Amino acid sequence: MSRDPQSDTWDKVWESRKGDSTEMAMLHDRMMAVLTDVVDVKGKAALEVGAGRGADSAHLSRLGATVTVLDFSSESCKQMRKTAEQLGVDLNVVEGDATAMPFPAGSFDIVFHQGFLEHFEDPAAILSEQYRVLRPGGYLLIDVPQKYTLYTLRKKIAIMRKTWFGGWETQFSIGQLEKLVSSCNFKVIRSYGWGFTGSFVFLRRPGIRRMWIRVAQGLRSVRGAGGRSEATDEAAPITGTMGQKRYALWLVDNVGVLAQKK
Ligand SMILES: C[S@@+](CC[C@H](N)C(=O)[O-])C[C@H]1O[C@@H](n2cnc3c(N)ncnc32)[C@H](O)[C@@H]1O
């Protein structure tokens, strides 16, 4: 099989991040909570596409799902095999391409991905492939960077200067994501967002960064948000009253939808 040159880029990313985080810090708890709130995952066949480090899949495996993780980076697959062994969970690790997955139609009850769809210029084609491998009534869970954030600004500048690690990446407003998913024959069941200040993790000066973290932690407690989200302390979910409002989905760092195959 010839290797996609992009997979080399991801190999380097995962090689450089080897062992830089604990399993808990890699878990996307908001996304997982949305899924487990609606779906009893026990005994379900789940697929994570572009699974990276696979912490969310390890979590689902612990909850009793039968989990397959697919990634085209051999370094990611190597690390996921090791993680599964260390944690004592079952993950069926498959090195493969998300554009043409090596699974028969209707193989899975749940397909999900986090930080993945934004890497494709034709996301509808990727979602169609996921539609194929889902059984009718199966669930699709997607989590992507939200459009109106400082992360987007920083990314656009880096892409223009040709210094963005993956060369190119896009982002979605919640409306765009819902429209895209609906156009691929899925019914959106839940929309959600998380991370209010995570964009600022890119501040390079340690002093300013520390100051922002203190401000962000203050904002978080004012809003009554609890718990950790994503890999950094700065990326707090908006919860409380504000978190219930639709407009919050235009302020957060990441948005997601849970949808069902029609
Ligand atoms: C941002 S990472 C996902 C991180 C993951 N959510 C985690 O928690 O570790 C995106 C992943 O998608 C994978 N990927 C990108 N394009 C792919 C493709 N065409 N087929 C399979 N995997 C792909 C990359 O190798 C990378 O591991």
Keywords for this structure?
262 residues; alpha/beta; Rossmann fold; seven-stranded mixed beta sheet; binds S-adenosylmethionine
Structure description:
With about 260 residues, the protein is of the alpha/beta class. The chain has a single domain (about 5-195, about 255-260), classed as Vaccinia Virus protein VP39 (Rossmann fold). The protein is built from ten helices and seven strands. It has helices spanning about 5-15, 25, 30-40, 55-60, 75-85, 125-135, 150-160, 175-185, 205-220, 240-245, and strands spanning about 45-50, 65-70, 90-95, 110-115, 135-145, 185-195, 255-260. It has a seven-stranded mixed beta sheet with strand order 3-2-1-4-5-7-6, sandwiched between helices. Strand 1, helix 4 and strand 2 form a beta-alpha-beta unit. The protein is globular and about 50 Å long. The protein starts with a helix and ends with a strand. Bound molecules: S-adenosylmethionine (SAM).
Provide a quick synopsis of the model.
This protein has helices spanning 5-16, 23-26, 29-38, 55-62, 74-87, 123-133, 150-160, 174-183, 206-222, 240-243; strands at 45-49, 66-71, 91-95, 108-114, 134-145, 186-194, 254-261. It is α/β, with parallel strands linked by helices.
